[in-house]
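A common beginner's mistake is to predict each chain separately and then try to dock the pieces by hand. The better habit, illustrated here, is to supply every component at once so that their relative placement is modeled jointly.
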Amino acid sequence: MIINMTRIMPPSAEVPYGTLDLMVLKTLAALGPLHGYGIARRIEQVAEGALALNQGTIYPALLRLEQKGWIASEWGASENNRRARFYEITKAGRKQLAAEVDLWERTVAMMARMLEDRP
Amino acid sequence: MTALRVALSRVLALLGGGWRERDLDEEIDTHLALLAERYRAQGMTAVEARAAARRSFGGLQQIKEECRDVLVVRWRNDLVRDVRVSFRGFRRAPGFAIAASATLALGIGAATAIFTLVNAVLLRPLTYPDPDRLVVISESTRVLHAFPANAVHVEWWRRETQSFDQIAMVGEMTVNVSGFGDPESLPGARASSNLFPMLGVRMQLGRMFTADEDPAGRDRVVVLDDRVWRTRFGADPQVVGRTIRVDDEPYEVNGVLPRDFRFPALRNLVSIPIPSDRPQIWKPFGLEDAERNPIGAFNNIAIARLKTGVGLPQARAEMEAEQAAISARLPQRLAGGALLDLHAVVEPLQSQIVEKSRAGLQVLLAAVGIVLVIGCINVANLLLVKSLGEQRELGIRAAIGADRWRLARRVLTESVLFGVLGGLGAIGVCYVVIRAVLVFAPDDVPRLDEVSLDVSACAFTLALSVAIGFTVGLMPAWRGARVKTSDTAAGRRPGGTTTGPAASRTRKWLVGAEVGLSAVCLVAAALLFHSLINLLTVEKGFDATNMLTAAVRLPQNRYPTLQTRAAFQRAVSERLATVAGVSSVALANQLPLRGIGASSALSLEGTTIPLLERPLAEVRSVNPEYFKTWGIPLKAGRLFDDSDRDRPVAVVSEYTATHAWSGANPIGKRMRFGGNPDAPLFEVIGVVADIRGVSLDQAPGFAAYAPYWQRDSAFVLLAVKTSIDPPALAPAVRAAIHEIDPDLPVSAVRTMNDVERLATAQRRFQLTVVLIFAGAAVLLAGLGIYGMLAYTVRQRTNEIGTRLALGASPRAVRRHVVNDALRVVGAGLAVGVPLALMAAATLRALLFGVAPYDPASIAGVCVLLGVTAWLAAYIPARRAAHIDPALTLRCD
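With all components supplied together, the output reads:
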């Protein structure tokens, strides 16, 4: 099942694609409609400096998610009154999030077991 | 729907380029601004804050590039994959791919070709400046609709009407041209000097006519058509200023018309049937004094340009008033003691030009449209059947997690690919069909030389093909997306009885529609066929076998008087009679079936009928042997002979005898030709049988015959009855004429059978094309029926096997399958026949001697389609009857 994820993983991203997608989905599911800056800020806050995120990289991720129909977007006004695109998770997105969270948890559990056995 | 929207946005990103990107730019700007604000709040200067924002955002260009890739690449990759899979499928089942693409190629190719033709002839504006302001003005009376104009009237119109910028006048003229090469008879025209400027002509060489050259006497100049300049003068640039001999008079060449100048054959500018080709040589109008007669000849085509802002209704109303004024103004004496009642017809030039071809072309367009629709239905059907066959595979794919939209898209990609392949083939087909049409089409069709397959037609063909491919793929794609994984998982065979009642109903609908549409096409073909047969077998009233015909024109300056022309005709007929193989000779001013020669009002002695409402008769100037040569029997009185040399006598047709004198015996009655009360009175001495003298489809009307020595024309049409094969006599006939006058060009030497063939050429062409299309429609409908039944039988193998096992006879099974076909055909006909009847009503103008609701044609069509269905059902029915019950029971 992990093989499935390498398919969409770019060769040398600082943040693996799958992870970033999952983080974006989770953020939107937790906080409701947000623009790109808001999403990036939230991820940075949660990571507490543990993640070297180039904020721009969330935009290709947002496009990809939107193409898959997992998020939807709409123009709105940002807090400084500029035009900004607000993203929102869709029903299909929530389903996908649930599935990915499940997969992630199982992977993490498995990895944890595997690493415990280290000599 | 999301998937569609996404696909759409990707396509737009790929094609439109950038609208989404610009959007993205704005979004990123906002992001950077928000970031910078945060850094400002942390105490940085504005410049520092912007730089920091840039840094933590990452490489701007790189990110934009990545976004672009996301927008485009995936879409492109998917497409490439789908196309590759489709091609793999084509290789696996090449027969299917070829059948589908070829059907589309033929249908679309033929449709584009015919559309190109119709577009060039009917739709595309004429190549003159502001073509929609050009009109043709015809005169009209209560009894005769739309005939050419009188020259004096045109002069009055120019002076007295306000609706037109210009009114030009064009007259028919055939001339003998010499002074370079062999003397030749050329179709030409005389035109007022304002014609060429009105049509926006820019001369290729030299100049056009000036107003100074308009009057007779100063009109000894010509302008050459590009074709004649190239063929006769070797495209000599020194031709301007040269003198050539036109009808034996010296004329100076003024200039050469541009290569792209198109002027229609004059016959296409008038509503009445006259023979005339496209003018190759032009001279100024040069109106003779003898032509200045307001009730004299009505021979001129008036082409006018409407003033800017003047509409047709306004021009029509003004012309009506003008004609009423002219009617009132005409001298009572000249009008024969009675008033004229003139009207006018103002038609756009373009619609006038195509008037005689419009109905025929529209029929072709409709027929090819029907074939195209049937072809598309067949392809849709094929795809549908194929997708049902693939349902198991699709089901498995769906079960292991394939995106449904991807499945649908694969099916759609495949059908669009058929469209692309078909479209490429269609361009070839279109090219061939256009070539064939140009070769085989009769030259009666105007503007044919403007027909060509251009880039836009090719692009249109391809776009149409892709659109059709997409459309026919929609239904199978939709079914592909709806495939039930549970069915496949439960192991139900797609060929089993659980799938398909809906699908097979759809297919029956489609096949029924095919049958209905082919019925429309067939009925049209049957009616046209019936019409042509009627026309070919119609009682012409004359005998066309073993006749060789030829034409000469006697130029005014060599044959200035009636006597000199009569002498020529006498000499020629006597000389020809001595040629071996000639049994008799007919002379006339016009051949039968070649249109109007000269039509004249018959002014019966003592009449009070208004001039233009008097019987309009086709008057032929003939020799005494004319009637014997053509086999036209005498019905009463006697024929004229040499003893009538000094007495004006005439022979009339039976129709004229009964209708002009309302039943009284016409023998001994006297009449004048035309309205001039000073013209000689001709005494009727005989009545001959009616003939179809003007055209095959025109019933015999008023006709009169006068001896050539009393009333003649510059044209002499010879018809020689031969006792040997007519074409073999052609050299002898030419030689005999040249013995009398070596300088006269002899033209149009052909057999009367060829003349007849020319007269039906347009109809035969229409019929051939419609028959080909109808045949294609039936063939496609038959294939559709076959496909439907073959698939149903395969699908119901179990059920049929069970029936056979339970004791059903193979015959009953066979009948069951055939009945299935006949039911579909019956339903198709139930819709198709009423539709065909409606369509046939629009054919009326093209029919001859057959009603649009001709029961025989309709019955024939029904039988033909029934037989087609039976033939199409034969193989599947046999297969059904031969199913081995044991085998089918075992295999499931």
